[in-house]
Design goal:
single chain; mainly alpha; 76% helix
Length: 253
Amino acid sequence: MRMHKQVWVITKTMFKAWIRYPENTMGTLIYLGIVGVFAYVLMLSNLLTIDAVPYYIVGLTIFAFIGQSNSVYINFSVWREELLAKPVKPDIFLLSVYFGGLLTSALPMLLLFFLSIPFYWESLHMAPFLLLISLFLGILSSLGMCYLFASLGLRFRPEGYIVTSLTFVFTFLCGILVPVYLLPRPMVYVSYIIPYTWSIDLFRHSILSTPTISPLNQELLILVVSTAVYLFLGKLFLMRTLKAIRVKKVIIK
């Protein structure tokens, strides 16, 4: 079977498995509720300088596309014995999990986006080319992060609290719950290391014309470089982890 057919078959399986369980939908609603609470608090405290609703909806929409590292971690952990037996190439499985997670997370966020944004049409300042570039680079950098999390998934058990904690760490540090400019200084530096931060910031700017963390050209350069670095290191880390496991050089927990 060709690579794209393998990816499509596994992607559909992942999507069907997700929608089969209503607790997944409930978890999404709880997550949106928590984000809504943060938005309400920031709006009341006047710490957010623009309209909170489009700000958060746009941030959640791009994060729904790029925030698939936790899904990759879980699936590589659950299916690691099969992967180590080589029935499916790790790259094919990773892409399948990524796109399966993208379908389950992006579809509800896009629905929310298109239902809500018309009420805030005057807040939009679309830059289509920048929007596509930030989304494309965001997905590529996210794949780099997914390679890193796939290697961790091969080594550790699929603990639910780890996934939940990491989701909120990324949501907090990358400017979804709280704008990056409101983070304490040490946390800001951690935020800069995560490529999601730059993709989210550029995507928001491309739709809402919000101020960027750094000058636009500099921010694009940072995202391009971080994307290349994470893709290279992530792929290298996954391949070395697979090799080390097969020759028993690492401990599987």
